[in-house]
Specification:
mainly alpha
Length: 163
C-alpha cells in the first residue's frame, strides 16, 4: 500500500508540475482520463503480480506499436511543446519549429502527452511497486520537471514579489 501511494503521488506530481509550468494547448480531459486509466490499469496488474506479468509485457508491445503508428502526431506534438517552452524560456515570440500547422496543435500535443503519460505509468508503477528501483523512475520523471526549472519558466514566478 505504501509503494502504491508513493507511486501515485510521484506520478501525479510530475504530471501536474509539468503541465502547470507552461501554457500548452491540449485536451485536459483526455489527458486526465488517460492518467487515471493508465494508473488504474498498471496498479491493478502489478498488484496481481506474477499472474499478470505477461499482460504488462503485452501492453509494452501495444505501446510501441501504437507509438509507431502515431509517430507523426507525436513528432508534431513535440514540436508544439518545444515551441511553447522555447518561447517561455527565451522570452520571445519566435517559434523554434517554423513549419507546423496551428490547427493541429491541440490534437498533436494531446497525443504526445497521452503517450508520455503511458510510458511514465509503465516505468513508475512497475519500478516503484513491483520491482523497487529508484533509478529508472528517476530517469523518466526527473527530466520532465527539470525542463521548467532549468529554463526558468515565467509562469512559476507570476504574482511573486521578490522585493
Amino acid at each position: 500500500l505504501e509503494s502504491v501511494l508513493i507511486a501515485v503521488m510521484g506520478f501525479t506530481s510530475v504530471i501536474m508540475s509539468f503541465l502547470g509550468m507552461f501554457e500548452f494547448e491540449y485536451n485536459a480531459g483526455k489527458v486526465a482520463l488517460a492518467a487515471i486509466l493508465f494508473s488504474a490499469f498498471y496498479i491493478s496488474l502489478i498488484l496481481i503480480a506474477r499472474k499478470a506479468l505477461w499482460v504488462i509485457l503485452y501492453s509494452i508491445g501495444v505501446f510501441a506499436f501504437a507509438a509507431y503508428k502515431m509517430i507523426d502526431k507525436i513528432t508534431d506534438g513535440f514540436k508544439f511543446v518545444y515551441n511553447v517552452i522555447y518561447k517561455d524560456s527565451f522570452n520571445t515570440e519566435i517559434n523554434y519549429y517554423k513549419y507546423v500547422k496551428p490547427s493541429m496543435e491541440e490534437e498533436s500535443v494531446t497525443v504526445l502527452f497521452i503517450f508520455a503519460i503511458w510510458l511514465m505509468a509503465i516505468v513508475v508503477y512497475f519500478f516503484t511497486i513491483y520491482r523497487p528501483n529508484p533509478i529508472l523512475p528517476l530517469l523518466v520523471t526527473f527530466p520532465v520537471i527539470e525542463i521548467g526549472l532549468y529554463n526558468g519558466s515565467r509562469s512559476l514566478y507570476s504574482g511573486v514579489s521578490w522585493s
